[in-house]
Amino acid sequence: MQITITVNGKPHTHEVEPRTSLALFLRETLDLTGTHIGCDTSSCGACTVHLDGAAVKSCTLLAVQADGLKVTTIEGMANGNEMHPIQAAFKEHHGLQCGFCTPGMVMTAANILKENPAPSEDEIRHGLEGNFCRCTGYHNIVKSIQHAAGTLNA
Amino acid sequence: MIPAKFDYKKVSSISEALELLAKHGDDAKLLAGGHSLIPAMKLRLNQPEILIDISQIAGMNTIKMDGDEIVIGANCTHHQILTSDVVKQNAKMLTEVAKMIGDIQVRNRGTIGGSLAHSDPSADWPASVLAADAKIEVEGKSGERTIAATDFFQGIFTTALEDDEIITAIRFPKIADGNYQKFFQSASRFAIAGVAVIKFGGKVRVGVTGVSDTPYRASAVEAAYDGTSSAAALAVDGVEVMSDHFAGEEYRSHLAKVLVKKALES
Ligand SMILES: Cc1cc2nc3c(=O)[nH]c(=O)nc-3n(C[C@H](O)[C@H](O)[C@H](O)COP(=O)(O)OP(=O)(O)OC[C@H]3O[C@@H](n4cnc5c(N)ncnc54)[C@H](O)[C@@H]3O)c2cc1C
Ligand code: FES
Ligand code: FES
């Protein structure tokens, strides 16, 4: 069926099978491979994008469910060559090692900070319950988000 | 993991959904947040031929007071309930329950109606729905009806809902003194045991989820309640306790008693 999804501000109209996940649609139809698929079972959070501003796991959403809605992916976070403050904080504070979980972490972090601009360490850790990282031990991810909160509030 | 093929239809009214349900019978499935159904379809445990997306039906995603009752539309997400002032002011326990479901992303998609209809034995809402003696409002071909919480849950993934019925809303009384205690399955964050206790006029109502294949009211605890937490010892009286690779029967029974005790003491 034909759907139109506004991705990172630009409307995209495509023919899709209803069983196509939003994650596959983004990666394979739109070639936006920043959204990663880790578990494909709604556990790891690597596929997190924003749907009408809210963080969702795009592996567990059908592209047809997003028809008519707005999606933001990691590719939509930077402003041209200027990284989003959350991305800059991950770079500065070593919030990533292999980087596989990072797009999802950044998108979830944006949701955490939108609802709670000055979260405690505990609130950040709870906020990341749906995002797994196999490399960093989370420590620097939490630190990055704390610093990003500081920049965004400055 | 890609589900088997199906057709998809987004409906804008309850009557449109009911018409499609009547037309397609067993081949159709309602889709709300999709956070129970889509995983099951990817595993091909469920292969509906048509999905009827009810998530955009106007009026099914509001939270409002009706007299002394809080009416939560079936399509309200866990996140909507968590952040609702109406809920916070009139039934703070439900705010706390919503906070403990899944993670941010799951709460942004999963709905209370979907959770009740799916009736996963480890889901959180059933404990509070039972303890609050809430009413489940449904609409079907033959009209509207209200199902009492105690009649709603009938077994593992089984409810009193007919195939051609939709949950439209859940009606909760105000909850002045309620408490929810949960022991998390650490990977999925579902409840290995979850206990909701509501105290009123020297009495209690106790709803338990995760412990048996059907959520239940701990009537033995309610009858023996004497203002202390000693009745917690009766948490699994007359109940067949589940056993799985996360928690055996003995451990689950122990958790149920501990959580009832904590909830009674809170
Ligand atoms: C990673 C993960 C973690 C989770 N953790 C928890 C947790 O800790 N606690 C917990 O309780 N749940 C948890 N869940 C489940 C989550 O809350 C689900 O979203 C919820 O149980 C189902 O709601 P849904 O809107 O997604 O329903 P769907 O998946 O859309 O539907 C589920 C079933 O209900 C039917 N249905 C949906 N809406 C209606 C309606 N209005 N009337 C009649 N039938 C309807 C559908 O046909 C389907 O059979 C988790 C899910 C995931 C993926
Ligand atoms: S790929 Fe979606 S949650 Fe892991
Ligand atoms: S940086 Fe490798 S998984 Fe997180």
Report on the structure:
The complex is a heterodimer of chains A (154) and B (266). In chain A, helix 2 crosses helix 5. Helix content of chain A is 34%, strand content 15%. Chain A has a five-stranded mixed sheet, with helices on one face. Chain A starts with a strand and ends with a helix. With 154 residues, chain A is of the alpha+beta class. Chain A is globular and about 45 Å long. Chain A is built from five helices and five strands, in the order E-E-H-E-E-E-H-H-H-H. By secondary structure, chain B is an alpha+beta fold. Chain B has three domains: 47 residues, Uridine Diphospho-n-acetylenolpyruvylglucosamine Reductase, domain 2; 111 residues, Uridine Diphospho-n-acetylenolpyruvylglucosamine Reductase, domain 3 (2-Layer Sandwich); 88 residues, Enolase-like, domain 1 (2-Layer Sandwich). In chain B, 31% of the residues lie in helices and 27% in strands. The radius of gyration of chain B is 18 Å and the shape is globular. Chain B starts with 6 loop residues before the first strand and ends with a helix. The model of chain B has no long low-confidence stretch (mean pLDDT 97). The chains are: A alpha+beta (154), B alpha+beta (266). The site of one FE2/S2 (inorganic) cluster has 12 residues of chain A, from loops.
Strand order in the sheet with the most strands of chain B:
4-5-10-6-7
Q: Report the oligomer.
A: heterodimer
Helical content class of chain B: 25-40%
Low-confidence stretches of chain A: none
How many helices of chain A? The count is 5
- Strand percentage of chain A lies at 5-15%
Topology summary:
The complex is a heterodimer of chains A (about 150) and B (about 270).
Chain A: E1 2-7, E2 10-15, H1 22-29, E3 48-51, E4 54-57, E5 70-72, H2 85-92, H3 102-115, H4 121-127, H5 139-153
Helix pairs in contact in A: 2-5
Chain B: E1 7-10, H1 14-24, E2 28-31, H2 37-42, E3 50-53, E4 63-66, E5 69-73, H3 78-82, H4 85-90, H5 92-99, H6 104-109, H7 112-118, H8 125-131, E6 135-140, E7 143-148, H9 149-152, E8 153-155, E9 158-159, E10 166-173, E11 178-184, E12 191-200, E13 203-209, E14 216-217, H10 219-224, H11 249-265
Parallel strand pairs in B: 1-3, 2-3
Antiparallel strand pairs in B: 4-5, 5-10, 6-7, 6-10, 8-9, 11-12, 12-13, 13-14
The complex binds flavin-adenine dinucleotide (FAD) and FE2/S2 (inorganic) cluster (2 copies).
Flavin-adenine dinucleotide binds near residues 31, 34, 102, 120 and 124 of chain B.
